[in-house]
Amino acid sequence: MADKALTRLYVAHRRGIKAYLNNKVGDAAIADDLTQEAFLRLAEGGATAVVNGRAWLYRTAHNLAVDHHRREARRRTDTVDTEQLAAVVDDTPAVEELAAARSALDRVRSVLEELPERTQQVFVATRIDGMTYSEAAEHLGISDSSVQKHLARAVHHVMQRMKPR
């Protein structure tokens, strides 16, 4: 945009844009910064094809205000008094529960280690890594049906070995 046209827009609309932004954000200093940002964007060539500079400036100012509010909402943290914090239920598992879960996990690992390597790979790819059968097949260089057969074998083996005695 030509310097003269930009200067004319600045002189004609700076106060209006700043007042509009001040109304939106409620802070004169922030409104001033956002006004400068709007004109800077116009000057940087974002408006080479702009027909109506005033409309473009107000739309840009509006978008800048929305972006400002979003940033502030992400930054904001609300204070909570101590009584409310004390009422929060602690859902951390008990030490005994953690030990039992660790033991069960170790048992599943040892049961899986009894399987052939390819069957283990299929099980891990589909059940642990979350791959689809097709993704696992491509990753392991085998067919979809082979993935299904290996997985069926692995699940059957784990179920049989994990039965309570």
Order of helices and strands: HHHHHHHH
**Helix coverage percent of residues?**
over 70%
Mean pLDDT: 86
Portion of residues in beta strands equals under 5%
General shape: elongated
Largest β sheet strand count, sense and barrel closure: none
Q: Could you tell me the radius of gyration in angstroms? A: 31 Å
CATH topology of the largest domain: Rna Polymerase Sigma Factor, Chain: A
Secondary-structure-derived class: mainly alpha
The CATH level-2 architecture of the largest domain is identified as Orthogonal Bundle
The CATH class designation of the largest domain is Mainly Alpha
Distance between the termini: 81 Å
Describe the protein.
The structure is a single chain. This protein has 165 residues and is mostly helical. The protein folds into 2 domains: 3-75, Orthogonal Bundle (Rna Polymerase Sigma Factor, Chain: A), CATH 1.10.1740; 95-162, Winged helix-like DNA-binding domain superfamily/Winged helix DNA-binding domain (Arc Repressor Mutant, subunit A). It has helices at residues 3-25, 28-46, 53-75, 82-86, 95-112, 117-128, 133-140, 144-162. The longest helix is centred in the N-terminal third of the chain and has 23 residues, at 3-25. The mean pLDDT is 86.
